[in-house]
């Protein structure tokens, strides 16, 4: 993957802070968080390869958490981002933790990172992948009509929002644009289901936060996350679902700020025993 083709937005002044979105999302998911941090940090939001306006690698090239991690590392090198603060959601959280394990992060704040699910949850992700692959075979107009049906909209609200009944969640729907055979989402879902974060020491401040209403990557995954990143500060986001930037951007911004300040004050994480 070519790091020069990554689309991004860069605002603010201060130490760099890189924001990484989740699977199937785009950089605009961080808008409400970004504007709360640009007074203190130079905030960079990127479209990960295959999402937003960043192209995916050609079929046949590696396309998984590890290849994305390498591309983001090359992006940082290209733009002079030396050990930036990192924050990520879901897939973006996994990438942030992988970079931190390589010593390439000043601090890490992640929200419902992938890679800590149990066997049942992995089976569920594989099922989602098969359904996405089947849906990709349908004509676009059929997919759009299905996505707009009340049951599909209800399922999207339940899967993605902390409070499915809130007015803010009303417009939530599954995106089908670009859901074609070989589409980035279809290619990545099985890779996410297979991925597991391997325990390693992370030598910077880490916050791992989980929405207590996350129905995509269940909050019980936080137990595995704490076992594999034992120096992490663990946080429960009350009332938030899988995309807490949409449910509570204020709390998300404050947890990122807390972790960044911990690093900027020279906090030393606990050494493993």
From TrEMBL:
Database matches in InterPro entries: AB_hydrolase_1 (IPR000073), AB_hydrolase_fold (IPR029058), AB_hydrolase_sf (IPR050266)
SUPFAM superfamilies per record: alpha/beta-Hydrolases
Keywords for the protein's UniProt record, in alphabetical order: Hydrolase
Domain AB hydrolase-1: 17-254
GO MF term (any one): hydrolase activity
Species: Nocardiopsis coralli
Name of one Pfam family that matches: Abhydrolase_6
Protein name: Alpha/beta hydrolase
Domain of life: Bacteria
């Amino acid at each position: 993957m070519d790091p020069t083709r990554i689309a991004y937005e860069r605002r603010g002044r201060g130490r760099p802070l890189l924001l990484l979105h989740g699977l199937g999302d785009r950089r605009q998911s961080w808008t409400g968080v970004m504007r709360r941090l640009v007074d203190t940090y130079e905030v960079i939001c990127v479209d990960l390869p295959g999402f937003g306006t960043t192209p995916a690698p050609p079929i046949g090239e590696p396309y998984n958490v590890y290849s994305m991690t390498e591309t983001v590392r090359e992006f940082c090198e290209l733009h002079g981002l030396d050990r930036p603060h990192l924050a990520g959601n879901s897939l973006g959280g996994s990438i942030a933790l992988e970079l931190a394990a390589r010593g390439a992060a000043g601090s890490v704040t992640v929200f419902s990172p992938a890679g800590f699910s149990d066997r049942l949850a992995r089976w569920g992700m594989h099922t989602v992948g098969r359904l996405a692959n089947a849906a990709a075979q349908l004509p676009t107009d059929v997919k759009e009509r299905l996505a707009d049906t009340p049951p599909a909209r209800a399922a999207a609200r339940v899967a993605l929002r902390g409070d499915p009944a809130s007015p803010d969640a009303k417009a939530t729907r599954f995106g089908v644009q670009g859901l074609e055979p070989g589409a980035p989402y279809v290619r990545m879902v099985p890779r996410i289901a297979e991925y597991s974060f391997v325990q390693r020491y992370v030598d910077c401040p880490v916050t791992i936060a989980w929405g207590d209403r996350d129905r995509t990557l269940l909050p019980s995954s936080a137990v595995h996350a704490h076992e594999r990143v034992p120096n992490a500060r663990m946080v429960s986001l009350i009332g938030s679902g899988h995309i807490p930037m949409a449910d509570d951007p204020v709390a998300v911004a404050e947890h990122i700020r807390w972790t960044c300040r911990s690093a900027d004050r020279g906090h030393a994480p606990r050494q493993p025993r």
